[in-house]
Amino acid sequence: MGEFELIRNFFAAAPCAQGGEGVALGIGDDCALLAVPQGEQLAVSTDTLVAGVHFADPCDPFLLGQRSLAVAVSDLAAMGATPVAFTLALTLPTVTADWLQAYARGLNQMAQSCGVALVGGDTTRGPLSLTMTVFGRVPSGQALTRSGAQSGDLLCVGGELGNAAGALPLVLGQRTAPASIADPLLAHYWSPQPQLGLGQALRGKATSAMDISDGLLADCGHIALASKVGLLVERDLLPLSPALVAFLGPSDAQSAALSGGDDYVLAFTLPSVELPALLADGWPIHVIGRVVNGQGVMLLNADGQDITPQTRGYQHFRESP
Amino acid sequence: MGEFELIRNFFAAAPCAQGGEGVALGIGDDCALLAVPQGEQLAVSTDTLVAGVHFADPCDPFLLGQRSLAVAVSDLAAMGATPVAFTLALTLPTVTADWLQAYARGLNQMAQSCGVALVGGDTTRGPLSLTMTVFGRVPSGQALTRSGAQSGDLLCVGGELGNAAGALPLVLGQRTAPASIADPLLAHYWSPQPQLGLGQALRGKATSAMDISDGLLADCGHIALASKVGLLVERDLLPLSPALVAFLGPSDAQSAALSGGDDYVLAFTLPSVELPALLADGWPIHVIGRVVNGQGVMLLNADGQDITPQTRGYQHFRESP
């Protein structure tokens, strides 16, 4: 038995591979089989992380195990889906038992937290990279997409922004900070918590949603484009963590919140009538702007002046024709 | 807009990304949405191909496009599933328009041939590798697995064996051959045809099935282990192509058929009562052995003597306890 077959057996025996609701056949055959209840659809998303590009190499394999799955499951949260299963395609330059065990521990922990079962995948030799494909179920026609935002809706986010971008100099060893600052920022980076409950609570209420992975302004641009609307973002409404502001200062913290990636909190648009009940239920919703006629994204200061950064990477605002 | 976002748009506009039966939402949102009809299950499989490991680098991107999808869809054939959709995680060191266009042409052609729609994926920078996740539908409880073989069943394959292994010296430029020999071998290697029709025809008839990717003896070992049976393979019944025999000679051709990988024809076990009707329907079924009590795989010569190669990589035969 080759070493890569041993790895397959290792993952097949992992706690997260022991079936689960909706998994009719798990690891070990040519395909896994998923059961989708009547009246539901299957949501599917694929994400790749490459060593040296999406994470530092070397890095802590336990943290990588957590983060690699969380990043993928966050796309299920963005659709309002309930996680069911995932596949893991793991490419490794060498096989190291310690590395694999630590990686699997991180993976198991995040899988348990998100309620997903490992149902298959592939293990190959090559430069370190990971591709996760995640599966969730959602009542037919109720998935949250990017394309339903309406002029007049509120623009909201599900949590603090910029923490992962703030953590990057710590992750890369370029800066240090006291634990009171470093720990919360690094936790956001390495162990993002997919907003699954919020996504499900927004079904039938939010008019559009996505998870913030490329940065707030860039991702708002995706909603604006798909929904054919304009989005106004008010800089002074951005939720910033005390640790981020203490680490970067207020101005750079705002920049991290606007353009930094890897936040994995939800951005969504909501008719204002829906807001009170969601807040009363305790969901962490921050209103950061509104939807208008037009196309693209505009950043406003407290005086309502356009202070949109003139950089590439997202869709600038223009009036409706 | 970054170059990798341009690539995503390029694939989103590809013919194979234009929806299809069972695709409720295709490329362009956080997730795709698949509809699974009542009474059916979703079959899922993931395969990774790494440059320099699973294919020569550089290689013809058109052929790689065909092969990368065919290899993955073959797992759907092995379950008796009907292909629906796939995701593509493509990691590229550099972005070259010619390469991408040729790759996408190959991908489109195989996608059309197999009836699958591209519904999502990821495009990242890094060493060249491809991970495909494929989705198919199968009536609940009717998927072909590896675990149902019964003593007394026939052991069968769905076509000639060893052609892809025979092609390898040609692919790697280590040998040459006249077109009458090289062309059919290379076609098997670069453009394997997933046996989707055969897999579906075997539903409710075959007691176990898989596709041959690691080599006949190794893959028979997987069926033997999952089904808790012994498999006897008769060397002189192995179907060999005239091109393979002419290229390698009879003895090496048999070795390629027994141990060479990448055949992507189905291996399956069948109660003998099912054979006549399947043959009458024109399915290319070759009986190569039988299922017995015991555990593992034994290779027999024409005199019924055990000539199992004493190498690692598959399960040797032993009597039942």
Describe the protein's architecture and organization.
The structure is a homodimer of 321-residue chains. The first copy, chain A, has helices at 3-12, 61-79, 97-114, 163-171, 179-190, 196-201, 216-227, 242-248, 250-259, 275-280, and strands spanning 23-25, 32-34, 40-50, 82-92, 117-125, 129-139, 154-157, 208-211, 230-234, 266-270, 286-292, 296-300. Chain A has 2 domains: 3-139, 60s Ribosomal Protein L30, Chain: A (2-Layer Sandwich), CATH 3.30.1330; 154-300, Phosphoribosyl-aminoimidazole Synthetase, Chain A, domain 2. Chain A has 321 residues and is α+β, with helices and mostly antiparallel strands. Chain A has 10 helices and 12 strands. The first copy, chain A, is globular, with a radius of gyration of 20 Å. The model of chain A has no long low-confidence stretch (mean pLDDT 94). Chain A is 34% helix and 24% strand. The longest helix of chain A has 19 residues, at 61-79. The interface between A and B is large, with 63 and 63 residues.
